[in-house]
């Protein structure tokens, strides 16, 4: 295609990727001071020193920026969970490590900076795709652990796999979803251990 | 004592009890229209047609009225749970009935009228005595069911009783506490059955 036939925008190369990342980092900083709810794209543009139009070249809306921040945070939780699972030697230990890593990382990332919670709450409350992807990934990791435990004979096999996974996921949900986790912060030391013990009793062959 | 020696307020007899009840009923009606947060004792007095001073003869504060409404609601939930438990024949059935009755009654009472949720949220969030008494009563009913099941051989006895009860209570908590229940309303059909199954698997001897 010649340049005359194609007045399309320039391809988004590494430079564009860097600007996106720069906007996300600056927005994360801005939201954590002023909150997600109260900030407009204009406020954000002023604080970063970009024009509003320039930001809109990279993100369709404030929600799109919020989604990018949320994705980053949720991916960090998933990475911590995956690392914890890989390091554990048996399905029992994997389950305990998973639950612990999930609760401690989520608590750190969402609540040590309350304003990031603000974005997470929007994400979970409104079913953003980043939140849905996160829930699916956690369910998938859980499924792999349960399946491995059933195959090795460490866990019972009478209950249908999907039923076992779903009910264990329901037990974990109040610590996976930041909207619920905010009310459980005084339990995060105790609950993962107690609930892991209960779940593992339910999985005994 | 002669009347001259004793200018104390009249003893609180059945008439006073009726006025208290009248204030509670009127306040419940008023709060469910306008919300607990936004209503002052003056608003309430105006709407009932009593003077503010007269209301303060019966209740120290708006919170005291809120507590009375909350107590009534929580007592209704406990009564429904107790009835469900009495009607069930085995500890397994008692546990299932308890969980079901708890979730369905709490959902009805708190969320079919969202403004009552408003009071319940204050109660649970601020640790009002009515909320603490409710949690204790639910834990007590649960303890009785687990103990009965252990004695009859229906449930395992290896786990210390208090540990078993505590972990099961943690599983139920997101459906007991209205602050958490509000985020679980799309699960109230499915979760009590799934979680009861899991808990009962963990209790198998």
From TrEMBL, chains A, B:
Residues 17-77 form the HTH tetR-type domain. InterPro entries: Homeodomain-like_sf, HTH-type_TetR-like_transc_reg, HTH_TetR, Tet_transcr_reg_TetR-rel_C_sf, TetR_C_27. It comes from the Bacteria. Keywords: DNA-binding, Transcription, Transcription regulation. GO terms for molecular function: DNA-binding transcription factor activity; transcription cis-regulatory region binding. The keyword Transcription applies. Residues 40-59 bind DNA. This is TetR/AcrR family transcriptional regulator.
């Amino acid at each position: 295609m010649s340049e005359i036939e194609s007045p399309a925008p320039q391809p988004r190369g590494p430079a564009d990727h860097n600007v996106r990342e720069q906007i996300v980092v600056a927005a994360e900083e801005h939201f954590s001071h002023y909150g997600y709810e109260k900030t407009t794209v204009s406020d954000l543009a002023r604080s970063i020193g970009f024009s509003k139009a320039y930001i809109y070249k990279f993100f369709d809306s404030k929600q799109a920026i919020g989604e990018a921040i949320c994705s980053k945070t949720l991916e960090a939780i998933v990475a911590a969970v995956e690392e914890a699972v890989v390091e554990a030697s048996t399905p029992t230990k994997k389950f305990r490590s998973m639950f612990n890593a999930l609760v401690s990382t989520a608590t750190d990332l969402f609540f040590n900076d309350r304003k990031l919670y603000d974005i997470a709450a929007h994400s979970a409350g409104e079913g953003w795709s980043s939140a849905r992807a996160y829930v699916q990934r956690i369910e998938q990791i859980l499924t792999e652990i349960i399946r491995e435990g059933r195959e090795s004979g460490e866990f019972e096999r009478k209950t249908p796999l999907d039923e076992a996974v779903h009910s264990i996921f329901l037990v974990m949900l109040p610590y996976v979803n930041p909207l619920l986790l905010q009310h459980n912060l005084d339990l995060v030391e105790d609950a993962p251990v107690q609930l892991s013990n209960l779940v593992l009793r339910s999985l005994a062959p």
